Amino acid sequence: MNSDPVPDGAVRPQRTASGAPVTGTTPPARRSLLRAALTGTAVLGTGLAVGASPAVAAPPTTAPRKRPTTAEEALRELAAGNCRWRTFRERHPDETPVVRQALTTGQHPFALILGCIDSRVPPELVFDQGLGDLMTVRSAGQVLDEAVLGSLAYGVLELGIPLLMVLGHQSCGAVKATVQADESGEELPAHIQYLADQISPAIDRSKEGDARIDATIDANIRLIRSRLAAEPDLAAKVDSGALAIVGARYELTTQRVHRIS
User: Fold this and answer.
1) Model confidence over 178-213: pLDDT tens digits?
2) Contact 149, 245 (CB under 8 A)
3) Which DSSP helix (H) or strand (E) runs through 68?
4) Helix locations, the chain, DSSP H
5) Which residues contact 87 (CB under 8 A, 6 or more apart)?
6) What does the alpha-carbon distance between residue 171 and residue 224 come to, in Å, rounded to a whole number?
7) Helices marked H in 52-145
8) Residues 58-92 pLDDT 10s
9) DSSP 157
10) Nearest CA to 153 among 50, 94, 228?
11) Is the pTM here over 0.70, yes or no?
């Protein structure tokens, strides 16, 4: 019988073949702790590491997908992405480490979106697109000025983007403020009046109340699209078939984007 019983839960000392205690040997549990400490992953308690980041799954390595190269392909991709968005099946594409690294050497967005600043209508989300897919320019009511025009021209002329979409939306605050100021004769504050001056030619006076605001949203999209199509550099691209300029509207109630002709 063992004359040196070890209580339950205690570590039994190591012994030689003759039964003598082994001196100068680190107990197994302590050896494991020291080994972990030397590698920077000593564990304290359960799941807590000192000197190391929490374990994470290996990042996906999906390569950049093939981007649309024509306006027709771009429209199909945007429509498919918007369908995923409104049915809660988003893929959040082009966010992997491989894509991020590839984008450090250049960009090739397939669509240029002129949208409103409204926080409820971010193009990358409503079209379920990722890094490098869309070039977006946003101003209240999609109002054009030299900075906006220059930004759009850069996307078309320098990057060769085949699709330019003017994206308005339901319940646009800039359009509503313009219509209400027009009806009341009230002058809007500072630079906001500039926006109203740009939008006011689109006011649909054949409608009343909320119907006038809603109709003006569509009319404003058409007006901006027409102004862009009349820009000589952009018009030349349209005439050559290298560019399509379209109008579209996002419905907040359904999350659907549809064309405005």
Assistant:
1) 999 999 999 999 999 999 999 999 999 999 999 999
2) no
3) none
4) 28-38, 71-86, 97-102, 123-126, 146-153, 173-184, 190-199, 209-229, 232-240
5) none
6) 18
7) 71-86, 97-102, 123-126
8) 455 566 678 899 999 999 999 999 999 999 999 99
9) I
10) 228
11) yes
